[in-house]
Structures are given as structure tokens and as C-alpha cells.
Amino acid sequence: MNKVTLFLVVALFVAATLAAPKKIEVSFIDHDNIEEPNDGGLVYTPHGTVIVGDIEIELTRNGILNPSHRWPQGRIYYTISQNYSSAIHDTVIAAMRELEHDINGASGHCIQFIPRTNQVTYIEIHAGTGCHSIIGFNNHGKQDVSIGAGCELKGIIMHELIHTIGFWHEQSRPDRDNYINIDLTNVKAESRHDFNLHTTTEATTLNTAYDFGSIMHYGVYTFALDRSKPVITAKPGKASDTTSMGQRLSLSPTDVLKIQRLYGCTEDTTHITKPTTLTKCTFESTECGLVIEHTTFNWIHGRGVIADGPHAGYSFGTDSYLIAVQSPTHATGVAKIHSPTYRNGPVCVDFYFYQKGPSSYLDVVVQGPHLTTTVVKNYHNNYQNNWVHSKTSVNVPVGTEFTVTFQAHMATGDVAIDDVHIYQGHCV
């Protein structure tokens, strides 16, 4: 090769290298947290109340049927601890504004959260132990609302503020035994009080249907001794295939309706804030647009116990899930399922996973033709033998193509996923 030819080859190589578009780096934020962070133990407070799970109850109160426990004119005065970071402070305010927006609509002010000046009865939001709140208005001065470590997501804060407005948990309503089964043998002894059923003298359904999707409903495995087995299961035919108990994403229409009825406001559930869903799947019968890649291992639908997998899915305790099981013919390999192609910009990847070791594990990969392939989650060595909640905000420029792939790296042990929800924007 002469010098001229060599020069041209080098020049072409350099030109091609310079012309090649640079791959876009993917950034992400980890939002993994523990559901219902309070441990459910009984904690007595200095002012005559008892904390049961995430509820602080006056020992002499009668429940939300008593009109004196509703906030006068729906006005809830508050202070927020100055010890919070600005980000957590802003999340608390965002939770209040979303509640007002969803409940009030265009009809006016049904519920208002108002900064306290000199009001005698008000709520103080602070970083206590776990998450808990008094039920309703108690007219004896300051009422604590604890938003402690692990509770700082908007949905959990809204859950606690609805206790403040005047509501018990959905699974404690008087008619709950028509809709769910509760296995108290699988509940920590100190937490069983939190599953008490409230009678019609303590609480009212406000003529609404039982709501598995309420932001006030416990999850299937809340306070479980053995978190591979469900505590709450839906009775046959009572829950829809898209139901997921224990969601902390947004108010349901029934949540809004009950608050409006309790406070005598105009009934309007047409303006509830919800994220734009791109993909949502509970794996009851299909993959909902997710695509299984055929490799040495495959994802399959599971119901009940399969191999070393869970006893039930996450959604409502008797449902299906997706599982990759170890193979008698292959020592190692990868099972993959990927999302459709998105171009919507940042997304939240929200799902539950279950993995039993000693060496199989899950990771989540974001990739696209113009992106640097990025592992946004890696759960190697995370073997808890129970369903674990995973939430990640993934930052991708609007218009850039990408997919999300769930990869089970198989060796010894099984991996399962359920309740996959990918929605537009950052996780809330």
C-alpha cells in the first residue's frame, strides 16, 4: 500500500469516526422503598393516642361517623417540619395540591390544606418513626402526621393525609368479609390489630362499592410473617384482572367520591390526576404488549407455586405472574422480555420482582439505537424470598427511541415479575 492510499484510508476512517453520532447516556434515579414502612406495633404517644400500623387512634374516639371528627368547612391547617430537605417539603406540598385538585374540581373548596397561623387545632407533618396519622379532626391542638424515612413518596403522603381527612383503611370497612380473606396466622402478632374490622357504628361505606384499587387499601403481603405467602386474598370473582391491591400511585374514583360524600360536596370524579400509562400488565392471560424473546430460557405464566417461585402473584393474592425457572438441560442462560418501543421521553419503570437464590437474578436494561445500553437495575445477590417493589425514573430525551428489557440471569434458583407499570414522567 503506497503512502497516498494509506493516507486516504486513514482519512476515511477518521471522517467516519467523527461523523458517527455519539450515543446518548441514560441517567436514572432509584426510588426503591419499603411498602407500609411502619412495623405495625402498638406505640403509645404522650397525648393519649395509640399508633396501630400507620393509624394513630384516640382511645376514646368513635370513628368517622361522628360529625365532630370532620374538619370544619373542610379546612385542614398545617405546619411542615423545617428539618425536611426542600425536595421532601415540595413533595408534601405536591401531595396536598393533588388531593385538592382531585377532590375539589371546579365546584369550589371541598377540602383545603392551609398553612397554620394561630389556629389551635392543626396537623404537624414531621419525620417521625415510619408513617402514621390520627384519623380525622380531634379538636385538642396539634395532631402529628409522621412522614419518616421510606415514607416520602407522594402516594404514601396522600394515603396518610386521607387518614387525616377522616378515613380508615379500605380493608377495615364493615363489609370487607364479602370481598377478601385475611390470613391472620401469617401476620405478626403485634400487627394483627391493624386488620380489625370496623362495625357500622364506627365506619360507613358511604354507599360505595368495595374498592380493591383504593389508595387506602393494604397490599397483599402487608405485615406478613412469611412474605412469600399472601395475607390478603380476593374472594373468587370479586377483583378484576387489572386490580392491584395496595397501590400508592393516585386516588381512585371511589376514594374521591367517598371524601366528597363525607364532607357533603358536589360529586365529581372526572378530574383525577393519573400518570399516562405506556404499558401495564398483571400477566393474567397475556403479556400486554411486552415481547418475550426466545432464548435458552423463557418467561412463562405462573399461578400458585411453581418450582422455587412465589405462592401467588402480587396483584390480589390469587393471581398469575411471570416466572423464569431453572432448566434441567441448560446450566445457565438468560430469559428476556422487552417493552414496545417508546419515544415519549422520561418514564417510570414500576414493578414487583421475586427471586430465590442462590445464583439466579434479575436486571433491567434500557437500550435504543442512539442510546448507550444501560443497566438501570441489578438485583444480583438480592434474595429475599418475597415480592419486592422496584421503582426507577429513567431519563431519555423526548423523541429518542428506546425499550425496557427485563432480564432473568438463570443459574440456580428462579425469578418472577408481576404488576409491571411503565408510565410517562418520573416516578411519583
TrEMBL record:
<feature type="binding site">
    <location>
        <position position="159"/>
    </location>
    <ligand>
        <name>Zn(2+)</name>
    </ligand>
</feature>
<keyword id="KW-0378">Hydrolase</keyword>
<keyword id="KW-0862">Zinc</keyword>
<dbReference type="GO" id="GO:0008270">
    <property type="term" value="F:zinc ion binding"/>
</dbReference>
<dbReference type="InterPro" id="IPR034035">
    <property type="entry name" value="Astacin-like_dom"/>
</dbReference>
<feature type="domain" description="MAM">
    <location>
        <begin position="279"/>
        <end position="428"/>
    </location>
</feature>
<dbReference type="GO" id="GO:0004222">
    <property type="term" value="F:metalloendopeptidase activity"/>
</dbReference>
<protein>
    <recommendedName>
        <fullName>Metalloendopeptidase</fullName>
        <ecNumber>3.4.24.-</ecNumber>
    </recommendedName>
</protein>
<feature type="active site">
    <location>
        <position position="160"/>
    </location>
</feature>
<dbReference type="Pfam" id="PF00629">
    <property type="entry name" value="MAM"/>
</dbReference>
<dbReference type="InterPro" id="IPR001506">
    <property type="entry name" value="Peptidase_M12A"/>
</dbReference>
<keyword id="KW-1015">Disulfide bond</keyword>
<keyword id="KW-0482">Metalloprotease</keyword>
<keyword id="KW-0479">Metal-binding</keyword>
<dbReference type="Pfam" id="PF01400">
    <property type="entry name" value="Astacin"/>
</dbReference>
<dbReference type="InterPro" id="IPR000998">
    <property type="entry name" value="MAM_dom"/>
</dbReference>
<feature type="signal peptide">
    <location>
        <begin position="1"/>
        <end position="19"/>
    </location>
</feature>
<keyword id="KW-0732">Signal</keyword>
<keyword id="KW-0645">Protease</keyword>
<feature type="disulfide bond">
    <location>
        <begin position="110"/>
        <end position="265"/>
    </location>
</feature>
<dbReference type="GO" id="GO:0006508">
    <property type="term" value="P:proteolysis"/>
</dbReference>
<feature type="binding site">
    <location>
        <position position="163"/>
    </location>
    <ligand>
        <name>Zn(2+)</name>
    </ligand>
</feature>
<dbReference type="InterPro" id="IPR006026">
    <property type="entry name" value="Peptidase_Metallo"/>
</dbReference>
<feature type="binding site">
    <location>
        <position position="169"/>
    </location>
    <ligand>
        <name>Zn(2+)</name>
    </ligand>
</feature>
<feature type="domain" description="Peptidase M12A">
    <location>
        <begin position="62"/>
        <end position="266"/>
    </location>
</feature>
<dbReference type="GO" id="GO:0016020">
    <property type="term" value="C:membrane"/>
</dbReference>
<dbReference type="InterPro" id="IPR013320">
    <property type="entry name" value="ConA-like_dom_sf"/>
</dbReference>
<dbReference type="InterPro" id="IPR024079">
    <property type="entry name" value="MetalloPept_cat_dom_sf"/>
</dbReference>
